[in-house]
Specification:
Length: 393
């Protein structure tokens, strides 16, 4: 096996990037025999049959050549129709939408395209630990805004308090329903945040990948309020259980989408033909597929909420996504890593330490209820036993 020559080096910026805390912990516990993992946001449900058949048909018909850089015409038109119907913003499929390799690539392309090294972007936390490493890689400054004291929501008051005295702040990364807390924002909360964004002349990169999975509330996109300032990101991973297809998209005003398209082309050239074919089918004939998934997840959410309540566990009741953010026992203080390790090794249940999601996550754990009903039942039973044993010691 070759070893790197002594006189060669690599990027200090990349070397200093910390691996995802979610993946680090998942790797630690994955080798435990018979462990039930509630760690990753990976739906256990399958992609709809008609969507899979569209991908297979694409392959069988030798749809294996470079697609247009921004995406196939049919896909961009389907995305445009879908966004017109769901968030009531009309995006020109020719110039205002780009199909990406998952929402992850869309986030990368947006941050690289929008900001200069002297600019700063705000990231409300706790949140999925992708946004600030990407900013770091792009050479952009960032500030993490702890929302724990406001029920894990970014308020208009806090946003204004942060931005009013710092002219370097040029953008806000906004993810909701939020991973890991499952919190959703009301229409009025979005309207108030939009006013602050306008007042201080900011961009918003909004990651609404979980917008189809809300429970008892209607999702309201900030793009509906301020489309001229918003880069809207979503995809098919969660709505249609298509994480492995890696199909996302980003939409926004033409002038900025021209720049994002350049970065997208340099990063990946274009997205995979068969994945685009599947996405066309999902967004054309499978719009209602996500409703069945949502019903399933809501039943699982209600089960987990009920079981945690019986245990006396404090948690944030989610209104969206498929996670529950739960407080660990007092005896652990804020050491969520130790609690999660103890639960994993003593009771074979894997959950993600809340500190992996940035400031405000300390002292919490994230449980994913995207697992099967059977796995959830066994995992919650084991967790209850663990907490009871801990109280008796």
């Amino acid at each position: 096996m070759p070893e790197l020559a002594d006189n060669l080096h690599f990027s200090e910026k990349v070397e200093n990037l910390k691996p995802s805390g979610i993946r680090i912990f998942d790797n630690k516990v994955s080798e435990i025999p018979n462990i039930i993992k509630l760690t990753l946001g990976e739906p256990d449900l399958n992609t709809p049959e008609h969507v899979k058949k569209a991908a297979v048909k694409s392959i069988e018909e030798n749809d294996s050549h470079y697609a247009p850089q921004k995406g196939k015409k049919e896909l961009l038109e389907a995305i445009s129709r879908f966004l017109d119907k769901t968030i009531h913003v009309k995006y020109d499929p020719k110039s205002e939408i780009v199909a990406t390799v998952g929402a992850t690539e869309a986030i990368n392309a947006a941050i690289f395209a929008l900001f200069n090294p002297e600019d700063k972007i705000l990231v409300p936390t706790p949140v999925f630990s992708l946004y600030w490493p990407v900013a770091n890689l792009a050479g952009v400054q960032y500030s993490l805004v702890n929302t724990a004291s406001d029920n894990f929501k970014l308020t208009a008051e806090k946003l204004e308090d942060v931005v009013k005295n710092d002219p370097t702040i040029k953008g806000l990364i906004f993810n909701y329903p939020t991973n890991p807390t499952g919190v959703e924002y009301s229409h009025e909360e979005i309207k108030q945040l939009a006013k602050i964004v306008e007042k201080y002349n900011l961009y918003v990169i909004t990651d609404e990948i979980y917008s189809s999975l809300t429970y008892g509330v209607e999702h309201y996109s900030i793009a509906t309020e301020i489309p001229e300032r918003t880069l809207y990101i979503s995809g098919l991973s969660k709505s249609h259980a298509m994480t492995g297809y890696r199909l996302g998209y980003i939409a926004g005003p033409k002038k900025v989408m021209d720049q994002i398209s350049k970065v997208h082309g340099l990063m990946v050239t274009t997205t995979t033909d068969s994945s685009q074919a599947a996405a066309i089918e999902a967004l054309t004939n499978g719009i209602d597929d996500s409703e069945e998934y949502k019903k399933n997840y809501q039943k699982r959410r209600d089960f987990v909420v009920n079981e945690l309540s019986k245990m006396g566990v404090e948690f944030v009741k989610p209104q969206g996504a498929f996670y529950i953010f739960a407080k660990i026992p007092e005896k652990y203080g804020t050491d969520d890593m130790q609690f999660a390790l103890d639960l994993a090794f003593k009771k074979k249940v894997g959950v993600t330490p809340g500190s992996a999601f940035g400031p405000g996550g300390e002292g919490y754990i994230r449980l994913s209820y995207a697992s099967s009903n059977e796995a959830l039942q066994v995992a919650l039973k084991r967790m209850g036993e663990f907490l009871k044993e801990g109280n008796e010691q």
